[in-house]
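Hey, quick one: can you model this chain's 3D structure?
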Amino acid sequence: MTTYLLYDDAMKSPEMRHEIAEPIMDPVVFLEHEGKRIVVGSVLEEPALARREDVVDEFWNSHELGAMELVRDPSVPEHVIGSEIVLRALARAGATTVIVPASFSLLTADYLRARGVEVTADPGAWIARRRRKAPWELEGIERAQRATETAMLIAARMLRDAEPTGDNGHLRFEGEILTAEWIRESMGAALLSQGAESEEIIVHSGDACLSGHAIGTGPILVDQSCIIDCFPRDRRTGCYTDMTRTFVPGRPSHELRQLHAHCRAALTIALEALEPGRSDAYRLVGEFFGANGYPTQITHDGREPLTRGFPHALGHGVGLEVHERPQMGMRADELVEGDVVAVEPGLYFPDVGGVRLEDTVIITDSGYAAFTDPLSYELTE
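Sure thing. Here's the predicted structure for all 381 residues.
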């Protein structure tokens, strides 16, 4: 029988957080062996984990495995104490062959192998486990989504109420020049008030919309597209969501309206292709954009980076990381029921700007479902 092994803390390791649910700051051992889920930790972790009968079958105090004796023995190097506790936990469980994620400590893996434990890194096995979201993860994603909508509405109000300054194409809001930094700060405060957090909200205006993952700085421009991409983390669970809207404070050009109409249609095409067993949403959107004359990765020759048209993947999985499996690009994963994915078609051109629309949804047995009623996609609302 396969034994799954983790040794990490639940703040840095999404694998560990997925398995034990609690935000434990110190390294603990997680074993799934012969149908039992076992966690080994100190007396400090016991109150939080011993009560989590939904995720932990047995809690072993590391004191029982001789942790204090190891600490007191000067002949035991400090850096191997944790690895020795892992070894002793495996011996107590009777496990000699384990499956670990790609992020597993090399030091601990070498220590175990040198003492007869067969350690196999199998990233796919751990990815599959994490794609099956627990109820508490789905609740966290929904909370993050509601917080995102609150923050996005605040940004939309700032853009709606801003007025042209009459020079440089800038906007003035409440007597000051409206900037990406100001919008980001206002959205961040709204997220915190809703139990979420994000320091890296993307706010792009004009040709800055072609800047990819750059965070965005400086004044917001009148009559230009303003892409706002918000991907906060629910503080209670550590789970993310991801949403993008594009606004135009002022009067959109014909070119921007056309990009927006095609992105809106592409989002519909993508969502209609989301169901278990399918992996063709990216291809369908790429073909739609290509048929309307836009460059895409599907038709690009690859000799130079693609920076115009539709230059990125259609989306990605969302959960304890803002970017996780499944992939929705050139190497698309087959969707499974329970996947949570962000879908984000976008089009970008110099001297025109860009448009991106994004929603996070869950794959159901027959299609998809939104976590909340989606906010308006309109450019000027």
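One thing worth noting: The chain has ten helices and 21 strands.
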